[in-house]
Amino acid sequence: MALKMVKGSIDRMFDKNLQDLVRGIRNHKEDEAKYISQCIDEIKQELKQDNIAVKANAVCKLTYLQMLGYDISWAAFNIIEVMSASKFTFKRIGYLAASQCFHEGTDVIMLTTNQIRKDLSSPNQYDTGVALTGLSCFVTPDLARDLANDIMTLMSHTKPYIRKKAVLIMYKVFLKYPESLRPAFPRLKEKLEDPDPGVQSAAVNVICELARRNPKNYLSLAPLFFKLMTSSTNNWVLIKIIKLASILLFFGALTPLEPRLGKKLIEPLTNLIHSTSAMSLLYECVNTVIAVLISLSSGMPNHSASIQLCVQKLRILIEDSDQNLKYLGLLAMSKILKTHPKSVQSHKDLILQCLDDKDESIRLRALDLLYGMVSKKNLMEIVKKLMIHVDKAEGTTYRDELLTKIIDICSQSNYQYITNFEWYISILVELTRLEGTRHGHLIAAQMLDVAIRVKAIRKFAVSQMAMLLDNAHLIASNTQRNGICEVLYAAAWICGEFSEHLEEANQTLEAMLRPKVTTLPGHIQAVYVQNMVKLYASILQQKEQAGEKEAAQEITQLMIERLPQFVQSADLEVQERASCILQLIKYIQKLQAKEVPVAEEVIALFAGELNPVAPKAQKKVPVPEGLDLDAWINEPPSDSESEDEKPKTIFHEEEQRHSRHRQPEIDEEELARRREARKQEQANNPFYIKSSPSPQKRYQDTPGVEHIPVVQIDLSVPLKVPGMPMSDQYVKLEEERRHKQKLEKDKKKKKQKKEKRGKHHRHNSLHTESEEDIAPAHHVDIITEEMPENALPSDEDDKDPNDPYKALDIDLDKPLADSEKLPVQRHRNVETLKSPDSEVPLVEKKSKKPKKKEKKHKDKERDKGKKKEKEKK
Amino acid sequence: MIKFFLMVNKQGQTRLSRYYEHVEINKRTVLEAEVIKNCLSRSKDECSFVEYKDFKLVYRQYAALFIVVGIDQTENEMAVYELIHNFVEVLDKYFSRVVSETLNLLQNVFSLSKL
């Protein structure tokens, strides 16, 4: 026995502590994993020892290893043991490990409840402190419910150290156990006026976070915060208060509850802006002023001074040489942009300059701003500038970002700002020349979109796509997913669908049948195959109408020769389509041999226009009358069989499970009644946002061709690459076109002016063109997307049912009802226990530490007992 | 909301990591590697705010050590930037014998009145 102890202590001398471990890892750079697994084995040995100091050391090392990325959840029970050490330094290690690795899925967490409660009521403030800090990282709904009362009392502890932590952890408790919010709220309010600034700041933080999600419940606190804002001198607290003010304001704008709040705030905020030297505070104030002005923007002319002040300050920030300030300035500008675009547009030059900055974050911010600042006039020059950047930014993720941004800018609000779609398509084609991009599908989607929606542009689009298909060998070399070869997808589809616009249909068909096509990804090949047939059909029709029977038969023969390479494809879709089509064409060949005209029927295969479908169309398909989706299709198996098969319960306290009741069959009348009730409710609820019913397709085929103004193309300068469009020419063309338009309009205006005299025409006679004056070269014809018939207009599927913040949407102004008091743990008496077993220990307050295995067993039984009690309740 | 707090050295090794939201262990290392790559590739005159996926990184370099804080969109970036400096100053005052001398030098560079 004595020898064992000596041996034990000698072993302990060779234990590594944390420093040794770190040093060891640094020394074993090559075989780090092996060394660490060795260390973990040692740690496992140490954890088996009885000595708490040894265990604490082991857990300490484990925490470090966890930080490096090794999983330590197997040691959860040991961590709990260390947490229950009496010495503070060991306890601290245990709690740290717990906060790093426990989460809601850890099943031993329930064993900690008692330990944490003991620590919370400990006379040593550091024990309490460490328990509070650790708990905040792994609090679960059960823990929250059990400990909420204790933490609430701690909020009024004598020591500010504890009060601070208690206030902060209440936020986590609220999230997990929302019923605790109402009882705890009065105390939280008190803490706002706590003499200690740390506690005050903590309270401000908690309310700030709560208000962020449910601002309407905290509007009553607004005057209190106003007072705090004017009296506080601590910058950190001020930042939070001002942030909170902006949240409340933002909400206050939606309801007419506190309109005066905004006006009152502007004064102190502007004072702060002028007086503070702290950049962070300045930034926060500017943000809030913007929020105020957004909320007051309806009809408040004298606040333009404040907007000017803000914009001025932001300009100073952006011009500053410190990159951080530039970034912040741009960020705040983009917020102003949403509501006051005019005040920002005057600084366009500055922002375009920022685009050339070498700092990527700043460029991204500037790009974002551009998004809001494009107009019909400047879209082309901005995109031109961006294209130059794209060329420069070879091989970076920034280029991808640019690409997405260009497309976003151009396509926003249904292509509102594009006046010449030919230009846009040429831009898209130029973008296809980029290598290594991951946004091929985006470009492809755009091409498809434009080709479908703008009918006037189809001819041009088709010619460009045909050229792309011809040069497919350049693009097909990059076959990664979402690579640029996706563009071929769009190209093939467009050529097939709008094949009537193709000039050299034969050539395009041959381009699609080349053997190199089989190296493309499967989904692209499938599109190729399908569209080949469409092309073939239109060629067939052409030839038959022209009476060229041999040419028709030649084409058929060509198809039959080349299709088998697709039939052998590994991709299922391609194989299926190709074999179907091969059979069809062989049949056509037979008919052709008999000199039967087949073209009409083949064309009929592809009759009808394909229009874009709304993304939510599938969900909106109305359930037809008489269909009950909840009714059983087959009767479920009866429960009596499953009960017979249940094995005899080993623990006789396990309750018999009640057989689940079958869902009552809801008949149709009930459904209809419920639907009516729901609609009533929605109509009465002022907060329910109803969207307008989807309009029918009002945009019929516009007489688009006549509306296009005739543009003169200057052919004296030969185009650089035959067939490849240069987007620059469109810029020039556009300017010429607009100039002509302007001249015409001026003539009209002069006539109007002569007719009407003596009236105010100052606004009309300004020569600065407003947006609406520029008539686009091509109209977007199809703006609305298809929806199923009788689709319901409302949109109910955006809300996440598991959102924890939704549960916190509680009205705090009503007085507390009796039922809402927090549950307090009481002693469990023997008489109240109804369960047959009395092995469950009575009182939980015994703080003796039995041997750990016994404790574990008792804990488990105790918890089982608790669970049973709850079930009975 | 602060999502995480990292201290990383120039070679990319994590010296300290603290997550305020539960993130799976294997995802943590991946996250850290990417974040570090982003921050190390930036030069001295670029701003300290990096946009990464759906949150922002605010980082500061102190000699061979990078301190990176991940925040979401609602947080004031400048305030977090100052917070990092505050943290370093506290560490410096508390563990003055442990923190390297270079940090003391830097304290003069980043003057205290900047807050």
Number of helices of chain B: 3
Low-confidence stretches of chain B: 104-115
Specify the CATH architecture of chain B. 2-Layer Sandwich
C-alpha Rg of chain A (nearest Å): 37 Å
User: What structural class is derived from the secondary structure elements of chain B?
Assistant: alpha+beta
The general outline of chain B is globular
Care to count the β-strands of chain A? Answer: 0
How is the CATH topology of chain B named?
Answer: Beta-Lactamase
Helix content of chain A: 55-70%
- What's the overall geometry of chain A? globular
**Helix residue percentage of chain B:** 25-40%
Structural class of chain A: mainly alpha
What order do the helices and strands of chain B follow? EEHEEEHH
Main β-sheet description of chain A? none
Strand composition percent of chain B: 25-35%
InterPro entries (chain B): AP_complex_ssu, AP_mu_sigma_su, Longin-like_dom_sf
Protein name (chain B): AP complex subunit sigma
Subunit structure (chain B): Adaptor protein complex 4 (AP-4) is a heterotetramer composed of two large adaptins (epsilon-type subunit AP4E1 and beta-type subunit AP4B1), a medium adaptin (mu-type subunit AP4M1) and a small adaptin (sigma-type AP4S1).
Membrane topology (chain B): Peripheral membrane protein
